[in-house]
Write a structure and sequence with these properties.
With 150 residues, this protein is α/β, with parallel strands linked by helices. It has 4 helices and 5 strands, in the order H-H-E-E-E-H-E-H-E. The N and C termini lie far apart (39 Å).
Length: 150
C-alpha cells in the first residue's frame, strides 16, 4: 500500500466516524478543528505524518510520506469557506508542486443542505464532480436519526 491508498483508506474511516458513528457531534465549524481531529486516525503506520509542513508553497493540512518518492497531500476545507472555488482550482496543486507530491486529496466537510448544494455547484462548474480525489463528508445533524426514532 502506498501513501495515496493509505490516505484514501484513512479518509474513508474518518468519513464513517463523522457520518455514521456520531463524530459529527464533536466537530466545530473550523477547518483547523476538523483537520486536527483527522490526526487521530493515523496509528500503526509506516508513513510519516506531517501537519502544516511548509515546503515553500504554503501550509497543506497534511503531507503523508514514505520517503521522497511517495507523498500525498491532504487538505481539509469547510463547504462554507468563501474561497472554496479558488482553493479547489489552485491551492492543492501548488502544495503538490512544492512538496513533490504526486497525489492529493481535498476533503470538504458540510454542515447543512445549503452548503452541500453550494459545493456541488462549485464542483460542477470546475468539472470536478467525478474526481476521486475530492471527498465530501456529511456533518449534518438533521439527517442522522437515532435507532429509537428510525
Amino acid at each position: 500500500m502506498n501513501t495515496y491508498e493509505e490516505s484514501k483508506k484513512r479518509i474513508g474511516y474518518f468519513k464513517d466516524l463523522i457520518e455514521n458513528k456520531g463524530g459529527y457531534k464533536h466537530l466545530e465549524k473550523k477547518e483547523k478543528s476538523v483537520g486536527g481531529l483527522f490526526r487521530f486516525v493515523w496509528y500503526e503506520t509506516p508513513s510519516d505524518i506531517n501537519q502544516e509542513s511548509n515546503d515553500g508553497g504554503g501550509l497543506p493540512d497534511y503531507k503523508i510520506s514514505r520517503g521522497s518518492q511517495d507523498k500525498t497531500i491532504i487538505e481539509f476545507k469547510l463547504a462554507s469557506n468563501s474561497q472554496l472555488r479558488r482553493n479547489l482550482k489552485e491551492q492543492v496543486s501548488i502544495y503538490q508542486k512544492a512538496s513533490d507530491a504526486k497525489n492529493a486529496f481535498t476533503v470538504i466537510v458540510y454542515f447543512d443542505k445549503a452548503e452541500l448544494n453550494r459545493v456541488n455547484k462549485i464542483l460542477k462548474e470546475l468539472d470536478l464532480e467525478q474526481s476521486p480525489d475530492i471527498i465530501l463528508i456529511d456533518a449534518r445533524a438533521d439527517n442522522k436519526p437515532t435507532g429509537s426514532r428510525a
